[in-house]
């Protein structure tokens, strides 16, 4: 059973998905997709309805891009739990779709933020970069993708929190996400990347204020999520393109996934809490992950209706 009383370590998250795969061998499949800079194993969990039909449509979701956004892996795990353990209630979500989930895209950063208060607000990966004899750690994985890389809202300074990396895909973690996106691009309908905080449902583009041709479809899906959350909990999510409702920032995974062929690509910025917004107390996990699930389920239902 998944606990929402506390935040899990990367090892506990891995144990949880390993355990699910053991318990539901006909519906849950694990795949090692690569290794982080510090050689932590990156594993996807594929959730199906067990009918073994190949080449179903795909929803790909990741969490834990940014190290300090602990609520993200917690919410992603909760979604996994609902789809697997409450399969009977959610069978429709898995009828023509496989869900592929990478719960912690940046495990080195996630683990580092659990080493003490000084590290708690660290954002990036953990590959060291030298600048004038000084060492700073990590690139911003959400500025490291090769689509309008480092053009806007990103930095070339390794000590910046939005360091784009020395070149696109300099981080093994973003290479892994890139490879997953390309593997499923031809049947990838929706990409969801879970961040915090601020209560936003964001769609492309994040590199320009212009909107993609199909922005209305993106807006329909995101709005379905926002409306469902508002109705269930009263929480307001702001919906719109990344650049227009948040800020311009190029080289992010959402733009890349959309460019690679996913029809729908959404960054969900969950509810914030604690002192900085990135550190909601564990007592808030339950409320925030159930709220997130309501939004994600509604977006998936809208996608299934449209595609
Ligand atoms: O800046 C980010 O990477 C995301 N916000 S966060 O506070 N979680 O860091 C927003 C990314 C939105 N997407 C694009 N700008 N493409
Ligand atoms: Zn983030």
UniProtKB/TrEMBL annotation:
GO terms for biological process: proteolysis. Transmembrane segments: none annotated. It comes from the Eukaryota. This is Peptidase M14 domain-containing protein. The keyword Signal applies. GO terms for molecular function: metallocarboxypeptidase activity; zinc ion binding. One of its GO terms (cellular component) is extracellular space. The chain holds residues 117 to 423 of 423 of the full protein.
